[in-house]
Amino acid sequence: MGDLAKIFKAYDVRGVVPDELDEPTAEAVGAAFVEVTGAESIVVAHDMRESSVPLAEAFVRGARSRGADVVHAGLGSTDLLYYASGSLGLPGVMFTASHNPARYNGMKMCRAGAVPIGGDTGLIDIRDRAAELVGVPAAPGGSVIEKDLLQGYADHLRTLVDLSRIRPLKVVVDAGNGMGGHTVPAVFEGLPIELTPLYFELDGNFPNHEANPIEPQNLVDLQRAVVAGEADLGLAFDGDADRCWVIDEQGRSVSPSAVTALVATRELAKHPGSTIIHNLITSSAVPEIVREQGGVPVRTRVGHSFIKAEMARTGAVFGGEHSAHYYFRDFWFADSGMLAALHVLAALGEQERPLSEVVEVYSRYHASGEINSAVADQGDALRRVREAFAARGEFDELDGLTVTGPGWWFNLRASNTEPLLRLNAEAADESTMRAIRDEVLAIVGRVSE
């Protein structure tokens, strides 16, 4: 039996297979999922990990034992599962551990219409009921229908972005042996794109590099290929292909804040005056540009549950995070890295300038990127940082500690799962950013020694 208390996180289920997550556990979770959601039908998809098929099949057995019919979509990305849940009007479950190593797997769950299920919206109820159902024989009840949704997913995404006017583009895509290798060819089909694929072979052992584009070392192959092939841009997807990282024609990373501002500008052109969501560690350029474009910026805590909840509350047309998650009202308020990539392709392809020039207008400040420090006593570290900056800026504790001074800001917040403090700093010039960054790190470092 798996360890339910350990694998049920704040927003999803994730653990080592089979020590923490095994087939009997998945079967019990399937039965509990149907009971808690009250679903008569559900949709299930999975990624390319070796453990995903047996775990998904066990989950389906559990769901059927409670009388639910199952639409089995087979291989898919997480945003394909959201498309399935939204278009079919069914609760859904995606089997994936995203960018985690091969020995991990997990489940991302949603209600009909891709409404997320988290700790305070049913996930704990599913965990508790699953604990009661482990080992209970699963008698088949509902039916299973296998349905290939890949083409419908690709067609739907292309209805949300006008790609009719783009010029021919050379694009390198690094799928990291993840689900982008399955979805990119379908989405790009028929577009004037010369595609250079890197690591499109589906392999849950990730033989080339981790499928986590937020880590710079995982972008090196893509950056080299873009420059060597004189490509117009590069795209990197994570394991379940719901996040997308962008590389310009010079092999340089385009910050997710710049992508957020770019997509926000395009969405505001279609929906004037709309609300745009951004988390508190995206660049200050994002709310500035949103206001300049006539939109209403709304700042949230870090985390997709906060973004999605705020989008639903405000009716926001778009939301972006520093982690390269991008959320769209027209995609059931769910996130889709592929849809963000199509916006970038459209913005680049509708004119003749290189991508570096296109995104320059959205990159106004110098940022540190996220820096993690191992700290035994996080509270004491935060207290010392507060004391050091007490008379130098405005304090905000929406999520950790944000201090804003003249021409700079930083956020220092604790990890929810590890003894880490995460620092993000930004300033109008690089020397100020480095000075603020190094001062905070020195204080944190003194505490952790």
What is the overall silhouette?
A: globular
Largest β sheet strand count, sense and barrel closure: 7 strands, mixed
Question: What is the first-to-last residue Cα distance?
Answer: 40 Å
Question: CATH fold name of the largest domain, please?
Answer: Alpha-D-Glucose-1,6-Bisphosphate, Chain A, domain 3
**Main structural class:** alpha/beta
- According to CATH, the homologous superfamily of the largest domain is Alpha-D-Glucose-1,6-Bisphosphate, subunit A, domain 3
CATH architecture assignment of the largest domain: 3-Layer(aba) Sandwich
Mean pLDDT: 95
Number of helices: 15
Helix content: 25-40%
CATH class of the largest domain: Alpha Beta
Number of domains in the coordinates?
Answer: 4
The tally of beta strands, per DSSP, is 23
Tell me the β content: 15-25%
Domain Alpha-D-phosphohexomutase C-terminal: 370-441
Family: Belongs to the phosphohexose mutase family.
Domain Alpha-D-phosphohexomutase alpha/beta/alpha: 6-121, 152-251, 259-365
GO molecular function, one term: metal ion binding
